[in-house]
Design brief:
mainly alpha, 434 Repressor (Amino-terminal Domain), 4 helices
Length: about 70
């Protein structure tokens, strides 16, 4: 599972709306939707902004090693 999928799953599980993240980050809704549905690659800056907006550390979505390869 990739980072974008992990973030998307987390915000769904927590009931966080994409609109609220867009408001906090300034990322356009169409870009946010495409990013969280893995239709476009997320930039490092977007990753950091999204993590800040949902009060999570980027490390919470990173997995090191081969045990998580899909």
């Amino acid at each position: 599972m990739n980072v974008q999928s992990r973030i998307s799953g987390y915000i769904k599980d927590m009931g966080i709306t994409q609109a609220s993240i867009c408001k906090k980050t300034g990322i356009r809704p169409d870009v946010m939707s495409a990013t969280l549905s893995c239709k476009r690659k997320m930039t490092a800056d977007e990753f950091e902004m999204i993590c800040r907006a949902i009060d999570k550390s980027p490390d919470d979505f990173m997995v090191l090693g081969k045990e998580d390869e899909d």
